[in-house]
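Researcher: For the record, we're logging two predictions in this thread. I'll number them. Prediction 1 follows.
Model: Prediction 1, sequence and structure:
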Amino acid sequence: MHYLFIIILASLAIWFGHAAIALLLGITASSLITLPKGFITKKIGSRLLQIGIVFLGGSISVSSVVEVSGNYFPWISFFVILVFLLTLLLGKFLNVSQKQSYLLASGSAICGGTAIAAISPVIKPEPEEIVNALTIVFVLNALAVVVFPFIGTWLELSQEQFGVWVALAIHDTASVIGAASLIGDEAIQIAATLKLGRTLWIIPLVLFTAFYFREKGNLNGFPVFVLFFAFAVTLNWLLNPSEEINNILKQINSTFLLTGLFCIGTQIDYSAIKKLPIKTLILALSIWGLVIPSSLWLAQF
């Protein structure tokens, strides 16, 4: 009976296609039924995320992204690095745990839930820390989809300016496209293109994270799956597969990441996450409070 219930909820997680919802469904499963200590979902979550990361690497078309967003890529890169470092510094100032700050920095600077899911098996945070980061990103993205189009209209931004702004300021790709779709086709095209350029930074993020969080003084601590990730990225760059193949790889990647996050959710004690840590929330809101006006300023150049 346990297995049937888990299969149904895991299938829903894949169908919804959202990282935070997948995690929430996993938490729901562990709250509604008592899963044995050695239940399969409690053992394979990280492994599924690792496999998903490898397929993520295979679906990233480096040459296409750089070609399309070449004019903006230096600004995007500067923005990503700056947001990432500011989040880590502010997290240290607020006494937020290193791994919690790192998750929020990755999600805020690069691509929301995808970045958080990608580095989770590398840094091995507490399940509650993953929940905190994904919950905050989910709420802010939902808010952005509603609020940003109103602000853009009020400020009389052009479609190009609005597309640049949302591509830099909003975390998840789906929310970027959602907000841009309320403005126009040109805004969607610009936002999608630039967001892909921002997402490209997930490659150095995973590689750097694996090196930084390895066991100190032990080069053998470098996670093997990250090498497969780098190999998959290189293979995509060399072979330049068709869009159809890239879409298949993205679907496989999404399935593994969502299922992995669902399994992580089944490890979480709901009573431990009833209240989101106030320092973590302050960190996320402070960074977003800096990102929104600064990205708006860049968009108007």
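Researcher: Logged. Prediction 2.
Model: Prediction 2, sequence and structure:
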Amino acid sequence: MLFNSYVFVLAFLPAALAIFHLLRRNGLDRASIIALTLLSLSFYGWWDARYLLLLVPLMLANYGLARTLVPREGGRRPGARWMLAAGVTVNLAVLGYFKYANFFVDNVNALFGRDIDLAHVVLPLGISFFIFQKIAFLVDAYRGRVHHLDLPDYALFVSFFPQLIAGPIVHHSEVLPQFLRRGSVPPQLFAMGVTIFVIGLAKKVLLADNAALFATPRFDAVAQGAAIGFMDAWAGALAYTAQLYFDFSGYSDMAIGAGLMFGIRLPVNFASPYKATSIIDFWRRWHITLSRFLRDYLYIPLGGNQHGRQRRFVNLFVTMLLGGLWHGAGWTFVVWGALHGAYLIFNHGWRSMRQRLGLLGRVADAYHALPARALTFLAVVIAWVFFRANNLEAALDMLRAMAGGHGIAWSGEASAGLHPFPDTALALAAIAALLAIAWLAPSTQQLARYTGPEREVVLDVHEAEDAHGPRWQPTVRWALPAGVVFAFCLMSMTRVSEFLYFQF
């Protein structure tokens, strides 16, 4: 069941909201939590009921283990470290089997000339997200950071449908306390959720899916051996850059919006990453909760920056390499992660050199902000080519075309008979418009003044406008445009496509 499908928008979500709020209105707060858990499991089982045979036992096993890991008053239980190691190992083994078994066997066969046959392993949706979430909870339970452990709340924490498939990777401290709140959801919070959900739906249906029309044919042509021209190569790469931006941004908005409708504030996961002036800044804006997980549960345990400059760079590279592999079982993702690891090393080295030379400061930063943003964007686009390409050969062919290896014409002759492209000039104009939105428009959280679970949402009418222009308010003035956009999205949802991050 896709967020951008009629069955979700017109059936499941309204039904889930009706059940939840009816229970809340009648004072059945705990029953509403249990009902929302069952609804979330139904949402996951809609794809394939067999997925529940993995999700539910894994949920119960991790809950039971977490109970044994929480320190008692006298300290940790005997053998707690070994139990934690066993729990993490089992979770990683499940992830490794379902996500990487075929990749491993294929590479063994290629390397040693073997013919090992492994039945195709179906990848359960969102397995990377909910495995990471469970591992983080076990580690925090062992460290004594879990202060509330109740099966209904834990079950909802790991299965809450807005974030189950593609994040954000929610930390228990952000949502478990919210499950204990009683009473009805404030109308202003519900209205904000509807608005943010509609904005996300528009990003996916109206922007991302149309960008895909320019990106997919060009990447498919290269994968089939076409030598496309310089302009078409850049049109394809930039179209995918825009597609992925609005696809993931749209999902993140819809997850937050749906959460707010149930009174749950999820963390911000996307903050205008193409406005970043460095790769460091980019990773503070793109998939924020994944960056947080990799920092807290991988980079810092590896030693972080506590053991010298060279060790810090090694830790950065390993973290990003594994972050790339987390996205997918393929060498293209490994190279993508390695590229970003190298980018971060260079970025930290450059920042240290500027600091030693006294070149840091407001004046210096303002002077180089525009070229820094352009260079960062170019580096990100190049890395996205590996992220999107079917294999390394196709990625290198696309980069070769982007470098002018097949001429500077609008379209290479070899591509003519394979995939008829939408007009290249039209593609570039559409892409320019999409990227202008990404670069110049306020983010959804800026527009709605949404701050995530850390602070209460500000809803003072007198604070509705500031130096950056008008901000959202739960008024008819804002509801009417949202209604029009929603209606237009419904008319455009005849061609339903998965969110790109569903494959991870």
